[in-house]
Design a protein that fits this description.
Elements lengths: L1 H4 L3 H17 L10 H11 L2 H17 L3 H12 L4 H17 L3 H14 L3 H10 L1 H6 L3 H12 L10 H14 L6 H14 L5 H17 L3 H14 L3 H4 L1 H19 L4 H96 L3 H23 L4 H11 L8 H4 L2 H11 L7
Helix pairs in contact: 2-3, 2-4, 3-4, 4-5, 5-6, 6-7, 7-8, 10-11, 11-12, 12-13, 13-14, 13-16, 14-16, 16-17
Length: 436
């Protein structure tokens, strides 16, 4: 939810990278850091090299948490050649850590050779040369490891005797010599010298040297000395299995060999205990794998829940928008109806006002209206006379004579005009003149 609430792509990339770095620094699995691929793509697109490198390393750790180790390796290895030397060394160091963690000694040697070529000075080169000893021994190339140690001790800038680097070289030298019976006594002498130089070292750290000493003493044929160191380990560290099950299993195998040397027979109880220990280690690994799978499933569940929440959020917004749209439509309709009603009311009021004015005009005609009525009546009479005059027929001539004689004393005036209709007109035009 935090991630999806961020609007800017850079903020999302920074969020994913910061979360992954926090998990790495705390030693936690990155199995749930499924957002890292977006950060990798973003930093690559914008050209932020430093953040891109960090995100690629984090993404590689995420892939390794999913047991996709080859993909993790290839992801980092694809960047090495295109980067400056300092960044190449940084990326190679990450790959070297992956190699040692996976016990892939062949890849470890390849990366160490890369680092030797990129080393700043002789001291750095020497440090990486020393790191080659363990992979060589593990790959059954102990003779190469011995030859390498001899050459390193002969260098002018070899570590000073008694220094930590010198002790580290001597321990690895003893491991290389102890792989063969003829050189095992020399390896025992070297490791004893190293132990004698270790002052104020905690007992749990000494156990890390006592167990290899048991192996070297067995290879040298010193059964009693091997037994002495076995008893010494038992007396110093009782919880070795809880702290380091691999070292504990290694010690059990050595004890089985010692029993065989002493008794000439293999101890079934010890073999059973060793098998039980290995089974416990396997179960622990299975539990961790199950925890990883559960974490991944939880991550997917969270992602799915997040997706469902996002859909609900979108549906909620669509519902709100729909309600707002319906509200706007209703308000528009109400406004339109009210406007129509208002217009009709205005029109009705205008009609009422017009009717009132007409009524007032009808009850109280103005002088102009009266003059117009009189002119209309007079013009009507004139038009009649003109019609007779313009058509000189015998009938019309007779009618014109009657019109011209109208009003003479010897004419019948009452027959010429309908006085009962004329007098009301006069009264109407001239304020009841006839009636008065």
């Amino acid at each position: 939810m935090d991630f999806n609430n961020l609007k800017d792509k850079k903020l999302k990339a920074d969020y994913a990278l910061t979360r992954a770095k926090a998990n790495m620094y705390m030693g936690r699995s990155l199995v749930t850091d499924t957002l890292l691929s977006q950060a990798v793509d973003f930093y690559k697109a914008v050209g932020d090299t430093a953040s891109h490198i960090e995100s690629v390393i984090a993404q590689a750790n995420h892939l390794r948490s999913l047991e996709r180790k080859d993909e993790a390796w290839a992801l980092i290895d694809s960047l090495v050649n295109d980067m400056p030397c300092d960044i190449q060394r940084q990326l190679n160091q990450v790959l070297l850590g992956f190699s040692f963690s996976d016990k892939d000694n062949a890849k470890a040697l390849m990366i160490i050779d890369r680092q030797i070529k990129l080393a700043h000075d002789g001291s750095e080169r020497l440090n990486f040369e020393i790191k080659k000893i363990t992979p060589l021994v593990t790959l059954n190339r102990s003779k190469d490891a011995v030859a390498l140690c001899d050459s390193l001790f002969a260098l002018p800038d070899a570590p000073e005797e008694g220094s930590n680097d010198w002790l580290y070289m001597r321990i690895n030298y003893a491991a290389a010599l102890g792989e063969h019976r003829e050189t095992s006594p020399q390896a025992v002498a070297i490791l004893k010298d190293v132990l004698g130089r270790m002052k104020n070292v905690p007992s749990d750290k000494l156990v890390e040297f006592y167990i290899p000493m048991v192996n070297l003493q067995l290879n040298s044929g010193n059964i009693n000395e091997a037994t002495k160191y076995t008893n010494l380990v038992d007396s110093l560290d009782s919880d070795i299995f809880d702290r380091d099950p691999v070292a504990a299993s290694y010690l059990e195998f050595l004890k089985i060999v010692l029993d065989y040397e002493h008794n000439g027979a293999l101890s079934l109880s010890r073999l059973s205990n060793t098998a039980h220990s290995l089974r416990k280690v396997s179960n622990d690994l299975e539990v961790k794998r199950q925890e990883r799978d559960d974490a991944l499933e939880n991550a997917y569940d969270l992602s799915r829940s997040n997706y469902e929440l996002t859909i609900r959020h979108q549906h909620l917004w669509l519902f709100i928008i729909l309600i707002m749209l319906v509200g706007v439509i209703i308000v528009t309709i109400i406004f339109f109806v009210a406007h129509r009603r208002r217009q009709k009311l205005i029109e009705a009021e205008e009609r009422i006002e017009a009717l009132e004015q007409l009524a007032m005009a009808a009850t109280k005609p103005s002088p102009d209206d009266k003059q117009a009525l009189f002119k209309k009546t007079l013009l009507l009479q004139i038009d009649i006379i003109r019609a007779f005059a313009e058509a000189p027929t015998a009938h019309n001539q007779e009618a014109l004579k009657k019109i011209s004689n109208a009003g003479n004393s010897d004419s019948e005036t009452d027959a010429l005009v309908n006085w009962s209709e004329l007098y009301p007109v006069i009264d109407e035009l001239y304020d009841n003149f006839h009636a008065n």
